[in-house]
Amino acid sequence: MVLLGLLAGPVAAGTVTGVAAVVAAAAWTRRHRWSAAVLAAVGAAAAAGVVVSTHTVLIQGHPLAVAAERGTSAVLRLELSDDPRPLRGAGYGSRPGGVTQVLVPAELRGAQVGDATWATAGRVLVLAPPQGWAGLLPGQQLTAEGRLAPAQRRDLTVAVLRVDGPPREVGPPSWWQGAAGLLRDGLRDAARVLPEGSAGLLPGLAIGDTRGMQAEVQEDFRVAGLTHLTAVSGANLAIIGGAVLGLLRLLRTDPRFAAVCAGAAILGFVVLARPSPSVLRAAVMGGVVLLALALGRRRSAVPALAVAVLALLLADPRLAIDPGFALSALATAALVLVAPGWAGALRRRGVPPGAAEALVVPAAAGLATAPLIAGLSGEVSLVSVVANLLVVPAVAPATVLGVLAAVLSPLSGPLATGCAWLSGPAVGWLVAVADRAAAVPGAVVAWPAGWGGALLLAGALLATIALGRSPRRRAVLLAVLLGLLLVLVPARIAPPGWPPAGWAVVACDVGQGDALVLATGHPGRAVLIDTGPEGGPVDDCLRRLGIHALDLVILSHLHADHVGGLAGALRGRATGAVAVGPSRQPRWALEQVSRHSAAAGAPLVGLAAGQRLVWPALTLEVIGPVHPADRVDPDDGTAVNDGSLVARAATAAGTVLLTGDIELSGQADLLDAGVPLRADVLKMPHHGSRYSSAAFLSAVAPRVALVSVGAGNTYRHPSPHLMNALTEAGVAVRRTDLAGDTAVIVGDGPGPPELALVSRGDPLPARRRRRLTRVMEPRRPRACRFRASRSHEVGDGGSAARVVVSRAGPGPRGRPCWWRVRSRSGRPDRSPRRGS
């Protein structure tokens, strides 16, 4: 009912509420044996309908919601309701996984729009820069000024406020929130004794503080189905309460005293992990699980679970569309209803009691939540159940030691550090399991997203369980599943014909980034050009090719989509050296490259135009950049792109021109310098963007064009006009977003060597974009001064397209302005020119 009211509106909710009231009256008058159950169900539905209808009507008539539809500016007085949540980006110049904005949930205390002022209430989301916002605590009051935008989700949010600067008139936090913040900071400091991946994971595992988690670890946990471990849930509270109960029972204290102490521990943990709606939900669900375990009565827990869900929905209706709430409720229901029966069946077959519970808890919770996860993410993890089983022994000790380190941090830094150090093996095991599970080829398979996908998987699971209950059908089911595994899994792990024999160049599908592998003539060894934005895809590509050592890794320039995967490429592979070009910006990227290189024992070297490197089946000649700039603004994406290292490779399959992300200026410099550009294979500059000149393409005259690009990227790469022009000119174009990994080999025809292309298929799916990006309005080119215009021809013959590029000067408050691009049709295509 609450979900219907939020999604369909108050009219639909009111109609169903009226029907529920009629049914309740009929049940009251009939006095049937089912009347009490029907009355309770429809009464709860009617109450929920009244609550959600009231909330939605108030939101629709809220004065701030009306102002948000017009996109007007406003000054709001707010009280934070939760910690600022980092929004991470992987833009051209941003640190991989670096925080680009923070999302701040807050409650309205007052609003001023123009001359109108209201003392009002309501939920508001603030999108703000990290500076001045990231360290705020729940309960603090402040004033924020920005531009309003309508909320995109039907979760009773009044409006979204986009803020460019720090908050004003910031009030102090409450004493308990300040104490909780001190403990959280103490845990992060104590965790620094651990390796980098474990140090970021321990606070997330213990108290849900994921601000320090590495982006690669987060991605591994997502693929392995372990993300729930870093979100505060009933399991955390059950572990803390269970540890206190177990300790006091060992001391033979009074059971009621032990229960009071366990309750106090849970209450303190709620304050430590922030009493936000999600944490309060976890506290209730964890209390239900503890109640079921304490009473040993499964039937007693079911009414408690139902009452808990109903009470939470009536108190906060927006939880109805919160995925975390649904996952928590489903997992708790599985633990209460399914897990005891499964554990009893295993014990009857001789499995020890502790091992039986350890096996069924993750299995039951994983199967119960799998349909919803599939509908939300559009994918199904095939390794999640196994990964969850493997991490069971490590979760409890790591959680308890992490919480203990947080509690001891104000009292004794060495003791807190000691607790964090003791948790190192358990946390390291979690990192290792996630890393290995995410590295399994085909660990995640695509699945239909939305309600349809969730219902489809739920039906498949129910059918499988129903068939498995009959011994005769169970044998048939096992035979079918085994056949599917034998047919589908090998095809996903090692597709027939991959890698192709005699490959010379492979463009790896690493999403929106570059990674090319060049054969050197030594089996199992290669030269890698760029590493893509993340470590997993490039590591998978090299593993599929059988590359166990890298003679050289060349980073064309230091943008995140070219260097972000360096750690994954170096993982477990002997590496001769890591080379960078003359451009050393941005500095954070160079420091990261240096750190990863040193960790892998590979020296960091520099390359410049004129150098020549030779292997038995490969010769690399560095030909650019021709005029390396001494100082480049790291925020100027075009300047960093034009500083890309350019190389011409002689391979068994012909010559290959490796261009990095050079744009019009860098291409013109190469043409003016008269360096040899003719090549059989062209790695398209800048992911096939429109900024490739006709003169440059004519000088290269390639037979094959490799476009390394990610599916569904937000940069509109590659340019359709450019791709059509290349195809009409007889160039064989292969895009990694459509073809997956693509290899260039030597054909078998007589006469001069003929190039052949072999694509692996199974390209990486498009990334699911955050809903919040829909409310982020583009910066309009107000007060922009266009200071230069250049005209360029792209393509040749009848397919030529003329583009006029006007570069804009500084905009208001130093913001970047637009580049204005006009095609031959004269229709402007406005897109911000900010790197890749």
From TrEMBL:
Segments passing through the bilayer: 229-250, 257-273, 279-295, 302-319, 325-346, 358-376, 382-408, 415-434, 446-468, 475-493
UniProt cross-references to InterPro entries, sorted A to Z: ComA-like_MBL, ComEC_N, Competence_ComEC/Rec2, Competence_DNA_uptake, Metallo-B-lactamas, RibonucZ/Hydroxyglut_hydro
SMART domains from the UniProt entry: Lactamase_B
Name of a matching Pfam family: Lactamase_B
Gene3D superfamilies: Ribonuclease Z/Hydroxyacylglutathione hydrolase-like
Subcellular location: Cell membrane
Keyword Amino-acid biosynthesis appears in the UniProt entry: no
Chain intervals with Basic and acidic residues compositional bias: 826-836
Name of protein: DNA internalization-related competence protein ComEC/Rec2
Organism: Pseudonocardia hispaniensis
Source taxonomy: Bacteria, Bacillati, Actinomycetota, Actinomycetes, Pseudonocardiales
